UniProtKB/TrEMBL annotation:
Organism: Lichenibacterium ramalinae
GO function term, MF aspect, one: DNA binding
Residues covered by the LysR substrate-binding domain: 17-207
InterPro entries: LTTR (IPR050176), LysR_subst-bd (IPR005119)
Protein name: LysR substrate-binding domain-containing protein
Keywords, ordered alphabetically: DNA-binding, Transcription, Transcription regulation
SUPFAM superfamilies xrefs: Periplasmic binding protein-like II
Pfam families attached to this UniProt entry: LysR_substrate
Database matches in Gene3D superfamilies: Periplasmic binding protein-like II
Amino acid sequence: MLKIGGDARRHFTHPKVAGVIRLGLTEDFARTVLPAVLGLFTRQHPGFSFEVECGLSKIMFDGLDGGRLDTVIAKRPAGRSGGERLWVEPFSWYGRADTPHPVPDPVDLALIPEPSESRRVMLDALRRAGRPWRAMFQSHSFATLEAAVLAGVGVTAFGRQMHGPGVAELGEDSGLPPLPALDMVMVQAARGTSDATDSFCDLVREAAILGVAPVPDQAAG
């Protein structure tokens, strides 16, 4: 579990505000950075209500564009520009510890359904490498994908902060192609947002600067 130390707490000096925060998040942010940021924010600014959607990046951005959400923190979808880059998320292949090396063809995959960014980078990498594949397990849940991997149903790709115990990172000797890193970005609605939302976003930015989340230059290096 991520924690923010005493120095960080003293650094956050936002004025007390009240209101509703409507967030769209991907599960990787929700499972890693959100607990620390949310805990500190609610202690400093009691009386808020949060309306949070958690799902695939493209769907979250559709909610932002449609006015349902005020702020999205997610992987940048292919073809979308803009937004504030918070950090770069490295992606790697994962499987059971006894996954054969090299991984044989066709590559059996555990996948998130479309329009998943992690699915896109996996399939693009396999196509470029000329590797045949087949979708053996599909689910919107990271927990069930991990279960499929641990059961030996297939391999998958996670951001390096996301994988749980028992899932092994598959290196170059697996024969699987390298995967690109993805930008984690924060985008606020063009129509403007509430003081409450602005304060929360300030805290997310400062969390990245203070190292609660990977800083872009460090993660990219």
